Automatic annotation (TrEMBL):
Assigned keywords, A-Z: ATP-binding, Nucleotide-binding, Nucleotidyltransferase, Transferase
SUPFAM superfamilies: Nucleotidylyl transferase, PUA domain-like
GO biological process: sulfate assimilation
Entry's family note: Belongs to the sulfate adenylyltransferase family.
Enzyme Commission code(s) on record: 2.7.7.4
NCBIfam families attached to this UniProt entry: PRK04149.1, sopT
UniProt keyword Nucleotidyltransferase, yes or no: yes
Domain (Sulphate adenylyltransferase catalytic): residue spans on this chain: 151-355
Record flagged with keyword Transferase: yes
Biochemical pathway: Sulfur metabolism; hydrogen sulfide biosynthesis; sulfite from sulfate: step 1/3
Protein name: sulfate adenylyltransferase
Residues in ATP-sulfurylase PUA-like domain copies: 7-137
Molecular functions (GO terms): ATP binding; sulfate adenylyltransferase (ATP) activity
Length: 371
């Protein structure tokens, strides 16, 4: 991971890595409201201790700007610096605070573990401990190349124009499989509209890349959903894999986009076996009234060969016979061109993914959408 570094310029220039480029953009665009700047030490400590900013506002994750050691030494409070990052990002920041973090303490408080096999913990321990805090101005957000709306004001405007009063948001970092589709359509029965809101910021190296996932989302929505009631938008932040606290973060930020309801899955925002299946749901539900959002929770869905349909654990007694594929097995099949059962993954989605994994061009998105 490339960390921030200083170059000579009219103002000191700090180059941001991908994660902080998106964090800075989200601070500027209202994604992280009520947070509007990289945290100073008081807010940082308060969030670790109580999941609240010093203002008292609920906020579960530290949002800080780590900088390399030479940068930390040279930059002092009161100085103005220029930030630059991917996609043409730039901004000015007046430095208000600088401090050093205890990375082990942050790992324990945010992730609940020091285990380096946790991707969030491993990423954290690769970062510098010194951070800068300050307010942003003259922000130019990155160009992602996605035509879908990115920012809260854009999504809220669409919801207002279409007259939707109840809107469920669905967070994902994976291609949509048939069980996801069933869950989303169940949610759509309960609200006016659904916003499919995939996270497109940095994820684990073995996750399906965002540009490829976006292609599959468009294909599924255009073919199998009522497009007048479903909106595809992008969620720019990085994935932290912080389990319950990140699920709460996702609920708070989706409220900023106009969500009235938020779908919370089992082990939401988790990874491996680090969190209990209902831990994220319980934390979101305990703060739902304060956030002003209604969590939508569903029993797991899957394909049952006995019922010969996508079924819910609430209505199907054959849960132990459901078909399933691990992420590792799915990627192996895609890479080797082995068929993925259509009961698990739509054929059009499978073709898009297989072509990409095998380095081929693919136009099945357009073919199936028009069939």
């Amino acid at each position: 991971m490339r960390h921030s570094s200083v170059k000579r310029h009219e103002l000191p220039v700090i180059w941001l890595d991908d994660i902080r480029t998106w964090d800075a953009s989200c601070l500027d665009q209202g994604v992280y409201a009520p947070l509007t700047r990289f945290m100073g030490q008081e807010d940082y400590e308060a969030v670790l201790e109580s999941m609240r900013l010093t203002s008292g506002a609920l906020w579960p994750l530290p949002i800080v700007l780590p900088v390399a050691g030479d940068v930390y030494t040279k930059i002092e409070p009161g100085m103005t610096v220029r930030l630059q990052g991917i996609g043409g990002f730039s901004a000015h920041m007046t430095v208000e605070d600088k401090f050093r973090r205890n990375l082990a303490r942050e790992a324990e408080q945010v992730y609940g573990t020091l285990d380096r096999s946790h991707p969030g913990v491993d990423r954290l321990f690769k970062e510098p401990d010194g951070v800068l805090s300050g307010s942003l101005k003259d922000v130019r957000v990155p160009d992602t190349g996605y035509p879908e709306p990115h920012w809260p004001h854009e999504v809220r405007q669409i919801l207002k124009e279409r007259g939707f009063r109840s809107v469920a948001f669905f967070q994902t970092r994976n291609p949509l499989h048939r069980a996801h589709e069933a869950l989303q359509k169940t949610a759509l029965e309960m609200v006016d509209a659904l916003v499919l809101h995939p996270l497109v910021g940095p994820t684990k190296a073995d996750d399906v890349p965002a540009p490829l996932r976006m292609k599959t989302y468009r294909q599924v929505l255009d073919t199998y959903f009522p497009r007048d009631r479903v909106i595809l938008a992008v969620f720019p932040p990085a994935m932290r894999y912080a389990g319950p606290k990140e699920a709460l973060f996702h609920a708070i930020t989706r409220k900023n986009y106009g969500a009235t309801h938020f779908v919370v899955g089992r082990d939401a925002a988790g990874v491996g076996n680090f969190y209990l299946p209902d831990q994220a749901l319980n934390l979101v539900e305990s703060h739902a009234r304060e956030i002003g959002i209604t969590p939508l929770t569903f029993h797991s869905f899957g394909y049952c060969p006995v019922c010969e349909s996508i079924a819910s654990a609430r209505s199907c007694p054959h849960h132990d016979q459901w078909w399933s594929l691990s992420g590792t097995e799915l990627r192996r099949r895609l890479r080797l061109g082995i068929e993925v059962p259509p009961q698990i993954l739509r054929p059009g989605v499978a073709r898009i993914l297989q072509s990409a994994y095998r380095g081929e061009d693919d136009d099945s998105e357009e073919e199936e959408a028009s069939s």
